[in-house]
Amino acid sequence: MAQINNTLDFTEVTGDSIKGLIDPILDTIRQAHYIAVDTEFSGHCPVIAKHMDQRYRSIADVVRTHTLFSFGLTAISAQPSSNNYQFTNLEFLTRNQHSFEVDPSNIKFLAENGLDFARIFERGIPFSSGTLDQGTNNKDQVLRQLWHEILKTIKDQRIPIIVHNGLLDIMYLYQSFFATLPTALSTFIEDLVEMFPAGIYDTKYLAASVLGESKSFLAYQYCKCLRLASWQGQVLPPLSPSSSTTQLEDDIESPAMKRRKRIKKNDTSKMAKEGICGSYSQNGWCKGGKGCPLSHDLDRILDYDLGAPRKEHKPSTEPSTDKDQEHTKEKGTTGTGSLRRDHSAHFDAYMTAFIFCHFLSTIDDVSLHINKLNLMRLDIPLHLKQSQYSKPSTEWTRIKALLWPSI
Hints:
two-stranded antiparallel sheet, 13% strand, CAF1_poly(A)_ribonucleases, 14 helices, 10 strands
């Protein structure tokens, strides 16, 4: 039987290998305390609407017509005789059997930064997105069946899901492996609460809103947590002992948001004098991209932010783009090999997992912040909470009856 790497390596799962890996994958998930996920896809919503219901509809329209290229999954488990965590990292290459659209700028960026489209279309696991008809070919359902088994496992074992700025990731997973996204946000929320009964944590929300971090993009938070863990002499932080639609206001800048903008503007000018790109430092991306004359080196940025002595820096080996800009991800490795410090679905999932484990040692009771997803340009999260005025979708109700017939 095929084996899964249980180190800081990753296992690539393709159409050729998935059948031999189903049992090891599910065994790994059964032993996990948490599961982190991340996705790569062909398009994102270019306009962020003011009202959340409108925003959801706009994003859902994009997700229904575009496709998933890959997803990363990191299973997090506590070492039985130590205070360290063990990470098992997987990357699934996926090949949609339906027609789909692409965002040219998104595809260009992914191609420039190493996403191997030839490998995806040659070796990706076939899947059919949306709600399936009765006559859909069974060979295109292996990922759907795997995700159904994952849902059973995380329900039985009470395993939470971890994401970073993950609303779009979750929507792509729903559309790809469960059903066509519901028309209404309230229905989608009802479905999610039932699908993931142990809840969802969003590390961007935890960083920005709970810990008050001024810079919350994925690569920065990972590098900062890695450095803090090193300072504390930890390989990984210890395991924590604690284990209806929200109506959103218009996208009007609050006093806190205005204050942060003023601070960012002033700090950006100071950083430029030090040779650091202030835009990248704050957001994880800049318009100049790789042609920017200022430094995007996260080690150097952290030295500046944390007050470390100024020194000559070699080119950074840390991740250098932001998960928050869905189209700005850097090259990931292919095949089963070392988990490199650059962007790909498997490494983004791993970084999300690492950040969350570090937050378990810095947030008093992380469970108080469950089911709160970060929303771009809003100071409040999307709260995943059931409402007496909404009910789950018909298609999810049908799937749930198959998964848990006794409920």
